[in-house]
Design a protein that fits this description.
Elements: H1 12-17, E1 22-23, E2 26-27, E3 57-62, E4 76-80, E5 86-90, E6 109-114, E7 120-124, E8 128-131, E9 138-145, E10 151-153, E11 159-170, E12 186-189
Antiparallel strand pairs: 1-2, 3-6, 4-5, 4-11, 6-11, 7-10, 7-12, 8-9, 9-11
């Protein structure tokens, strides 16, 4: 026994000396109606949503045409820009000055892209294709497009007009006739 107190018992002044905090005359955590311990499990509701957008599609409006040209004595190339301008090089230099048939003038390929309004998409074109006809095949290469490095956005109506140009590589003494081929245009949402 210490003084007149039994060991393990404190007086009110002893509790205060021990640093116990008093609030409104109630010892925190000991009085009835005080805050309870947090539960071990809490549940909250989360939300989920999904938005269906219009699928992206592409269709050809106009086929690409390098127009008409005279059979060259030496190999050359015709370059068709996305705005339909045609320039010649090599053996094709003087071969494009002939009058063009109104049914098949030089023109860039043109495509309509349809999809969700204001949506970013990417266009992929081939590296080269082959045109076949009466003689040796000709290659079409160096495809170009009227996008920003392949990236474009549909407008507020979900539309975009894509123009495609390329280079036609013509062989020396290419056989007379019409040469045809196809190329893939792939559009993908990003």
């Amino acid at each position: 026994m210490i003084g007149n107190r039994k060991p393990g018992r404190r007086t009110w002044s002893g509790w205060a000396a021990a640093g116990l905090v008093w609030s409104s005359g109630i010892v925190l955590g000991l009085a009835p109606g005080s805050a309870q311990a947090a539960p071990n499990k809490v549940t909250v509701s989360g939300t989920a949503a999904g938005t269906v957008v219009a699928p992206i599609s592409v269709r050809q409006i106009n086929g690409m045409s390098f127009g008409q040209f005279v059979q060259p004595a030496s190999a050359g190339a015709l370059v068709l820009t996305t705005d339909g301008t045609l320039t010649a090089s090599g053996g094709m230099g003087a071969q494009t000055t002939i009058a063009q048939n109104s049914a098949n003038p030089p023109r860039a390929g043109q495509f309509a892209v349809d999809g969700d309004a204001g949506r970013l998409f990417y266009v992929t074109l081939p590296s080269s294709i082959t045109l076949t006809g009466n003689g040796a095949s000709m290659t079409v290469s160096n495809f170009t497009q009227s996008t920003f490095f392949g990236f474009a956005w549909t407008d507020s109506d979900g539309e975009f007009t894509l123009n495609v140009g390329a280079q036609l590589n013509v062989n020396a003494r290419q056989a007379v006739g019409t040469y045809r081929g196809t190329y893939a245009v792939t559009v993908t949402y990003l």
